[in-house]
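Form P-L/3: holo structure prediction, ligand uridine-5'-diphosphate.
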Amino acid sequence: MDLSLIIPVYNEEKNLPLLFEAIYSVMPPLLSQWEVVLVDDGSRDRSLEVLRGYAAQDVAHVRVVSFRRNFGQTAAIAAGIDHAVGETIILLDADLQNDPADIPMLLAKLDEGYDLVSGWRKDRKDNAIVRTFPSRIANWLISQVTGVHLHDYGCTLKAYRRDALAGFRLYGEMHRFIPVFAHSIGARIAEMPVHHHPRKFGKANYGLERTAKVVLDLLTVKFLLSYSSKPIYLFGGAGLILTFIGLVDLLYLFIRRFWNVPASTSPLLMVGVMFAIMGFQSILMGLIAELLARTYHESQAKPTYTVRETFNLDKKA
Ligand code: UDP
Ligand code: MG
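OUTPUT (holo model):
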């Protein structure tokens, strides 16, 4: 199988016929070995029946996964990736805001030797105040924090080599961080402007609150990537600084006693004790986190490195 399209579907019954029309006009001329994996994320409308109809008509290309309830777009994408068998994977939305006509262009870019080609909705057709503007800030922030510079993390339409998706699981709203994880395992990443259209049918599932979730996810992602194999560096580092400030402060109070300045009436006493305690606690938390990190990596046989290829070795580590 050369290519798998993965499409999360939640209450898109009216969009699905148009989606299939667009897919059928793009895919067959392009490739013969392709599949589309549609994940019905517990839709409350007739989406699943519509999908079932298409699956019955085209057993060779259409695959459907149906969730028992709504688990969210990220879970739907994760399920799609788990069930897809293609060497190349392209994610897109079911509402036709992404344009399947961009697929050949993304594939061509991938063939230039990239592991991931990220779509960029340069001319985005969503509400400017609650969606486009906050997302610009979020994209800037993610780029700064992670060091992976993309204009549009939130665009679902992206193309991936299967290797670039190995070794990490997606939680929360994290599908937008796939490029960051991929970068961390050494993927070569390119970006391309793609088309974007307003929604014709149905309504968007997200508003401003998503930006808050994205920022929180960013904290998690940054922590996982930078410190998951050495958490004591973060906790212990903060702990050492706090303890040091606390001890210097207490020492200052102690020395002042020789000039008969009472320590107990100074607010610095409280500050010093607080810092010393917090610092000590933070170091202890770092040690606990070190234990957890070992369980995390070793229980899943997760190495702390990734190998691109080996020479003269039978086993790819
Ligand atoms: N979606 C999903 N589960 C959800 C919400 C959305 O599978 O709980 C799907 C939805 O059907 C669409 C894609 O995720 O294919 C993007 O959703 P939406 O268009 O609402 O997001 P936006 O384009 O506004 O970011
Ligand atoms: Mg949409």
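COMMENT: DSSP finds nine helices and seven strands in the chain.
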